[in-house]
Amino acid sequence: MAMVSGGELLVRTLLRANVRHIFGLHGAHLETIFQSCLDHKIPITDTRHEVAAGHAAEGYARATRSLGVSMATAGPGFTNIITSVANAYLDRTPVLYLCGSSALSDAETNTLQAGIDQVAVTVPITKWAHRITVAQQIPRLVAEAIRLATSAPTGPVLLDLPMDVLAAQIDENSVRIPEQVLLEVRAAPPAAAVSEALGMLASAERPVIMAGVGAYFSDAAAELRAFAEAAGIPVFSDFQAHGLLPSNHPLYGGTFHKMTDLSKPGERPDVILALGVRFGLFTMGMSDLEVPLAAKIIHVEVDPKEIAKVRPVALGIAADPRETLRAMSAAAKSRNWPNRSAWNQIVCNAKIDRRKRLESDLHRATPPIHPYQAVSAIAENIPEDTIIIGDGAEAYHWFNEVIRQNQPGSYITHGFLGAVGMGLGLSIGAQVAHPKRPVLALEGDGAVGFTIAEFDTMARHKLPIVVVVMNNHSWAASQHFQQIVSGNRLSGTELRDANYHEVAAAFGCHAQRVTKIEDLGPAIKAAFAGGKPACVNVSIDVAPIPPEVHLLMARH
């Protein structure tokens, strides 16, 4: 009779769900899991802070459209990871959080790292949170958690794992590991709704497609391209859906905020096919600046709660975006689509005009470097297949102006929580997910300070991530807010001009400071060529405000 631990049962269940990597930070409560991972050769990327382990699992999930797994020990380990849990919840990222807790036998004894109802804390910010109290039930409950996390609408789940439950010895023949853990369930659209949607799009004068995160997670790139080309409809995307239609495709209009450039009479979209879009912050909420109130919206979304939640819709379809596009493409073959070359040229001209307005700042010759100059130089000098992580209240807004990704899952940045400081963790997860692809983390100087010790994680695990710090020695978004709203009375929004690259160097990373724009391109190339983690600390001007931030501040 072979005996195995509760931790062993958990790891065997993870393997059945095709989990091949975990992010975490060791604590005694989790020891049996760590030992079982050694036995089964499941690598654990151990970070310097639990929140980075959580964000790494998010980055892994977002870069792969699959489950991310993160571990944290009891008490402060659990509380440290809460920001990641909340972030994953608001962005519907499928992450399994495994959190240790004190032994059941130690209940109400004032023992170490106890006294917190970890399940109660996380119920409001997870799809499901549960405490496992019987070791024999570990496989069944872990499988249930994984199915919930990875089923649409996806999201985080948390399992509270008491130390004595994980350490319990169980006869392995008395417990069955579920044969199937992962499920593939995709809701198909009603045929009548597909026909109605096609009729609306065919009769529109200025239709557009908005591809949201739901379109990315449904893996709809091929279907989106096929339908857009067949119907001749331009496509805009949110950040995570960037690359579903390559940036160099003639029908790609840009990220959602670029729709604000279609503001002249006769240029406003009249019908919008919104695929997996969650209207709100990244679509300017109810504002007419971005999504015209007069436009008829066809909203395709797996979660019925999102349909008409913020914007009125002409047609709601509670279905998977990829399945909907397949049905629409099949039905579209029997239709004659109008020639939309003039409309597509208007969209193209809007992109060109926006770039021209911003490029007037590319000719600045004296320091400090204009942030648009910096992101332009970065975009020009990174390898084509680079995965970009954007972190910082303004840094990523500048990069949104120049981003041009041609693969899905190549641009990972802030979501609805606005959690500044998650970039290093996200980049670790993305690099682990795609070890052969370059990864660049664009960080504000405020953002990089949250988890700067993760340069050590990158160095120890040989993750050649290039981190570019946009250093304006300021919490720039807050400073600009105070300048506009509070009459330039600054309080708590200024930082020192710190040598972040020297911190990275102390952990064994490549490091360089850049103060002249002509040095930035070569510095980026050298950082990638070095084959090890790198930090390029770039001095930029604090005064300019990204166009997107102007729009967001205009709402206050």
Query: How many DSSP H or I helices?
Result: 21
Radius of gyration: 24 Å
In the CATH hierarchy, what is the architecture of the largest domain at level 2?
3-Layer(aba) Sandwich
Contiguous uncertain segments of 5+ residues: none
Report the helical percentage: 25-40%
What's the CATH C level of the largest domain? Alpha Beta
**Based on CA inertia axes, which overall geometry fits?**
globular
Question: Looking at this structure, what is the CATH superfamily of the largest domain?
Answer: Thiamin diphosphate (ThDP)-binding fold, Pyr/PP domains
CATH structural fold name of the largest domain: Rossmann fold
Strand percentage: 15-25%
Strand order of the largest sheet: 3-2-4-5-7-6
Structural class: alpha/beta
Q: What's the number of domains?
A: 3
Euclidean distance between termini CA atoms: 67 Å
User: Mean pLDDT, nearest integer?
Assistant: 93
- Give the number of DSSP strands: 20
* Biggest sheet overview: 6 strands, parallel
Description:
With 556 residues, the protein is α/β, with parallel strands linked by helices. Helices cover 38% and strands 16% of the residues. The protein has a six-stranded parallel sheet with strand order 3-2-4-5-7-6, sandwiched between helices. Strands 11-10-9-12-13-14 form a six-stranded parallel sheet. Helix 1 packs across helix 2. The longest helix is centred in the middle third of the chain and has 19 residues, at 341-359. It starts with a strand and ends with a helix. The mean pLDDT is 93.
